[in-house]
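C-alpha cells as discussed.
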C-alpha cells in the first residue's frame, strides 16, 4: 500500500471523527459537576480513579465545600476524610487544599481560565488543565489520556508514546474547533469498542479507516 500523504491522513482523521459523532452522539464528559470549581475538583480526583466512583463521592463533598475559600480553610485531614474512598486520596487532599489556597491567593477565588494558568495549580497537569479549560471555558484542547493514546497509535495517527507528543500529532490533523469534541468521542470509543485488551473490530464504526483493523491487542497496545 502506498505511503499515506499528510493530506490523506488529515482527511482520514476527519472521517474518523465524523463517523464517531454519528455512532456515539451521546459521548460527553462522564463526571458530574455544576460549575467550574466542581469540574476542576472532579477532574483532579479522577486521576487513576473511575468516574463512577468520583461521582459517588463528590455530591457530599460539593455540598459541604462550596467555594475555593471553603476548601482552602478546611484542614487537610478533613479533606482526606471526605475523599478517602478514592485512590491516592492523601496526595489528592494535599493538592486540593494547596490548589484552592493558590486560587484564593492569586486569582481572587476564581478558577483560572487558561490551560497554562490551570497547569500552575498543584495536582493539575497538562491533561487535567486541558479538560477543564475545554469544558469550563470552551478552550480548544485535545488532552490525551490512556484511551486516546492507544487508539491514536492503533489508527496510525501517531507513533508517539508521550501524551504531549500524541496531542501535538492529533492537533495537526484536525482544526482547533474540533479538538475538544474529538477528545470526548475518542475516549468513548476506547471505553466501548477499541478496548485495550480486546478491541471489538467487528463492531467498530471506524474500521474502514483503521490501518490496524483486526489487530491483536497485546501486540500493539501499550497501556500507560
Ligand atoms: S478497527 Fe479495531 S483496532 Fe481499529 S479502531 Fe476499531 S476497534 Fe480499534
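Sequence:
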Amino acid at each position: 500500500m502506498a505511503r499515506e500523504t499528510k493530506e490523506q491522513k488529515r482527511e482520514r482523521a476527519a472521517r474518523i471523527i465524523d463517523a464517531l459523532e454519528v455512532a456515539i452522539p451521546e459521548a460527553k464528559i462522564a463526571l458530574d459537576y455544576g460549575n467550574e470549581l466542581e469540574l476542576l475538583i472532579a477532574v483532579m480526583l479522577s486521576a487513576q480513579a473511575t468516574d463512577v466512583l468520583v461521582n459517588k463521592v463528590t455530591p457530599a463533598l460539593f455540598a459541604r465545600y462550596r467555594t475555593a475559600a471553603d476548601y482552602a480553610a478546611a484542614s487537610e485531614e478533613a479533606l482526606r476524610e471526605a475523599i478517602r474512598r478514592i485512590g491516592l486520596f492523601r496526595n489528592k487532599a494535599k493538592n486540593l487544599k494547596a490548589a484552592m489556597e493558590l486560587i484564593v491567593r492569586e486569582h481572587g477565588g476564581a478558577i483560572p481560565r487558561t490551560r497554562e494558568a490551570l497547569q500552575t495549580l498543584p495536582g493539575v497537569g497538562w491533561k487535567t488543565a486541558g479538560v477543564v479549560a475545554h469544558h469550563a471555558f470552551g478552550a480548544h484542547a485535545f488532552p490525551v489520556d490512556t484511551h486516546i493514546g492507544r487508539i491514536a497509535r492503533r489508527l496510525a495517527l501517531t507513533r508517539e508514546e508521550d501524551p504531549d507528543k500524541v496531542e501535538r500529532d492529533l492537533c495537526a490533523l484536525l482544526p482547533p474547533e474540533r479538538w475538544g469534541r474529538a477528545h470526548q468521542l475518542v475516549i468513548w470509543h476506547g471505553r466501548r469498542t477499541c478496548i485495550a485488551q480486546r478491541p471489538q473490530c467487528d463492531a467498530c464504526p471506524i474500521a474502514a479507516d483503521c490501518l490496524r483493523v483486526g489487530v491483536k491487542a497485546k501486540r500493539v497496545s501499550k497501556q500507560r
